[in-house]
Fold:
Amino acid sequence: MISDFLQIIIDTASHLKITSVIIGGLALPAYKVARTTLDIDICINIKSQEKLNLFIKSLNEKDISTIQNPKLDQDLFTVFGKNNEAEIWLKPCDAFNWDEQMVAKIQLFFESVKVLAVEDYLLTKIARADRSSTDISDVLQILIANKDRLDWKYLQFRLKWANIENDFKEILKGFELDFDNHIRDISKEILDKFNN
Structure:
């Protein structure tokens, strides 16, 4: 179940035939990871300023507004409802834009809520300009929870595409800090899968 506020944003995008996905901490359960978050982050794939303006107008008609003047070349804008706010991203991450492969791999999480493929979601965490220790922890937990589900070749392709292979390898060093034998075995398996 999601909030009415989020559902209105998703439904508005859907009605206008705008691809939308939840991102950030809110999307983590789709990847078998739980973390408390209060942020609402949604990413939309819009190709024209006219469509973006129509989206904003449609939200305004539903008492969701922005004090910004969003433009296609910006990363994001914030919308406000009665007691809510959300960041609406115009690209999946500040470091890269949408592409056809990413859109084609979008997955249904539940009901009308969609998420990026796990490999593309990992990119949004790794490529962030302001990547934090929370993002690194999220990456490691997602890798553990999805080690048998990941398309490792696609992930390697995406890491090269975003030019973040070295960043990923540095994050993987987090597994070397582990002292629990069970997790160490899982870590070794993940490192082996990535390196093959």
